[in-house]
C-alpha cells in the first residue's frame, strides 16, 4: 500500500515519525513524507522521500521579537497561562475554559501553522498519488483533510500525551448537551470551511475523525497515557535522533555516577530560547560527586562563565547512545527526551518548559514514581540539587523506571505494528475508494 506521512514542519516532529515510516518501507510499502519546505532536509537525511507542500512555515521567525505576526500573542504567554492546553485537571475544564482553548488555539496556532496554501498543495498531491493511508501529526490538520478528499484511511501518530483527545472528549460532551443553534465549535467552523472549499461539505462534512483520526498510534506507555474512549493503537517508542557522531570517550565507563543535562532542541527550535536558567542548573550540580554531560550549544555556553569541573559540555549527542550510561537525566520535559529516558529506564528530573504537554507529562511521571519535577519559575540551585540527590539515592525511582521500560519492551515495535496498520487501513478506506482500487 501507499502511505503518506504528514508531520509538523519541525525536526523533532519529523523524528517522531521516522521509525514507523521506515518500518513500513522495510515491509515493502511505498512511503512519502509531506510537509512545508522547512523540514524537507530533515526528511531526506532520514533516507525518506520528501514532498514539500505550501510555503516555508518559518516557525522560529514567527516567534522572533522583530516579527510582528505572532509576537504579541505567542511570545507574551499571558494567554497561555490562562488557556493552557496542558491544563487537564478536571475541575479546571469548565465549558468556558474549554471553549477558550479552542477559540484561541484555532486561529493563533492551527490556522497559522496549517495555512490554506499548504492544505491545497497536500490535497492536490494526495489526489494524484492516491495514498491508502495518511499518518498525520496531531499538530497539523492538513493530513486528515487530504485523506478525506482522496478517500484514504488516516490516523494520528502522537509524539506526546493526547491532549487534543482529552479536551475534545470533554468539549464535545458539553456541546452535545446544547441545542444545535447554541453550539459554537471554532475548530469545526474552520475545518468545515476547509472541507467546503474542497467540495466535501454535503456528503463528507466535518466529524471528529478530522480532529482525532480514525484511530491513534501512540508511543506513550499505556500506564502513562491519558484514558480516552477514542481507538488507540500502542506502539513501542524507538528513539531516532537524526544523523550524529558519538564522541569516542563517551563510550568509556564513567568514573562517577553520570547525569545527562539537556534542554532539548524543540523549544529553542520553535521559540528560540530556553525557559529554565542554565546557570541555575549548573550551579545545582557543581558540588555533587557526579559526572555531568550537558548538551549545550555555543549560544548557551556564551552566556555562562567557566563550567564547573564536573561538567562536560557537548553541542549534540544522541540521547539514545548517552543515556544507557546515566543514572539520571535533568531535562525540559520534551516528548523525545522523556520517552528516550523511559526506553532506557533512567530516572528523571523534569523542569518543564511551557509547551504543549510538557507539564502534564512531568506530573504523570512524578505520580508514577519515575521523576521529580519543578516549574522553571520556581527553580533554585538548592531545590534542584535536593531533587538530583533524592533521585540518585532513592532506589524506588530506578525500580519504577525499570518497570515502565519493561512495559515499553512488551509493546509492539513499529515493524510488528505493520500488519495491524494494513488491517485497519483496509477496514477504514472509504467504500468509494475501495471500489476503485
From TrEMBL:
Belongs to the glycosyltransferase 28 family. Residues 280-424 form the Erythromycin biosynthesis protein CIII-like C-terminal domain. Pfam families: EryCIII-like_C (PF06722), EryCIII-like_N (PF21036). The keyword Glycosyltransferase applies. Coiled coil: none annotated. This is Glycosyltransferase (Activator-dependent family). It comes from the Bacteria. SUPFAM superfamilies: UDP-Glycosyltransferase/glycogen phosphorylase. InterPro entries: EryCIII-like_C (IPR010610), EryCIII-like_N (IPR048284), Glycosyl_450act (IPR030953), Glycosyltransferase_28 (IPR050426), UDP_glucos_trans (IPR002213). Gene3D superfamilies: Glycogen Phosphorylase B. Residues 22-264 form the Erythromycin biosynthesis protein CIII-like N-terminal domain. Keywords: Antibiotic biosynthesis, Glycosyltransferase, Transferase. It comes from Streptomyces pseudovenezuelae.
Amino acid at each position: 500500500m501507499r502511505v503518506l506521512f504528514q508531520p509538523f514542519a519541525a525536526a523533532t516532529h519529523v523524528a517522531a515519525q521516522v521509525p514507523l515510516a521506515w518500518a513500513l518501507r522495510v515491509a515493502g510499502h511505498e512511503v512519502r513524507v509531506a510537509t512545508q519546505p522547512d523540514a524537507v532536509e530533515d526528511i531526506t537525511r532520514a533516507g525518506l522521500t520528501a514532498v514539500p507542500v505550501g510555503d516555508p512555515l518559518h516557525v522560529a521567525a514567527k516567534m522572533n521579537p522583530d516579527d510582528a505576526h505572532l509576537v504579541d500573542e505567542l511570545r507574551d504567554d499571558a494567554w497561555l497561562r490562562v488557556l493552557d492546553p496542558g491544563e487537564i485537571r478536571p475541575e479546571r475544564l469548565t465549558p468556558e475554559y474549554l471553549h477558550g482553548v479552542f477559540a484561541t488555539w484555532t486561529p493563533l496556532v492551527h490556522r497559522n501553522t496549517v495555512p490554506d496554501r499548504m492544505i491545497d498543495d497536500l490535497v492536490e498531491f494526495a489526489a494524484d498519488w492516491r495514498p491508502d493511508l495518511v499518518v498525520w501529526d496531531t499538530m497539523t490538520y492538513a493530513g486528515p483533510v487530504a485523506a478525506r478528499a482522496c478517500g484514504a484511511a488516516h490516523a494520528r501518530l502522537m509524539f506526546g500525551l493526547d491532549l487534543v483527545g482529552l479536551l475534545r472528549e470533554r468539549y464535545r460532551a458539553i456541546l452535545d448537551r446544547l441545542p444545535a443553534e447554541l453550539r459554537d465549535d471554532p475548530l469545526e467552523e474552520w475545518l468545515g470551511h476547509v472541507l467546503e472549499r474542497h467540495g466535501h461539505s454535503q456528503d463528507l462534512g466535518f466529524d471528529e475523525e478530522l480532529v482525532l483520526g480514525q484511530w491513534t498510534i501512540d508511543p506513550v506507555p499505556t500506564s502513562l497515557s491519558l484514558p480516552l474512549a477514542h481507538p488507540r493503537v500502542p506502539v513501542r517508542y524507538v528513539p531516532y535522533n537524526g544523523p550524529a557522531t558519538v564522541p569516542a570517550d563517551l563510550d568509556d565507563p564513567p568514573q562517577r555516577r553520570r547525569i545527562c543535562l539537556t534542554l532539548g532542541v524543540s523549544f529553542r527550535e520553535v521559540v528560540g530560547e530556553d525557559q529554565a536558567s542554565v546557570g541555575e542548573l549548573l550551579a545545582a550540580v557543581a558540588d555533587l560527586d557526579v559526572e555531568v554531560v550537558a548538551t549545550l550549544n555555543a549560544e548557551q555556553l556564551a552566556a555562562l562563565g567557566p563550567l564547573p569541573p564536573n561538567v562536560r559540555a557537548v553541542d549534540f549527542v544522541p540521547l539514545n547512545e548517552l543515556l544507557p550510561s546515566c543514572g539520571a537525566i535533568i531535562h525540559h520535559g520534551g516528548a523525545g527526551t522523556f520517552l528516550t529516558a523511559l526506553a532506557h529506564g533512567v530516572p528523571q528530573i523534569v523542569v518543564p518548559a511551557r509547551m504543549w504537554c510538557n507539564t502534564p507529562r512531568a506530573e504523570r511521571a512524578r505520580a508514577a514514581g519515575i521523576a521529580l519535577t519543578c516549574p522553571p519559575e520556581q527553580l533554585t540551585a538548592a531545590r534542584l540539587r535536593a531533587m538530583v540527590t533524592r533521585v540518585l539515592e532513592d532506589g524506588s525511582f530506578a525500580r519504577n523506571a525499570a518497570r515502565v521500560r519493561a512495559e515499553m519492551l512488551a509493546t509492539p515495535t513499529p515493524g510488528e505494528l505493520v500488519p495491524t496498520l494494513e488491517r485497519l487501513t483496509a477496514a477504514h478506506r472509504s467504500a468509494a475508494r475501495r471500489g476503485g482500487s
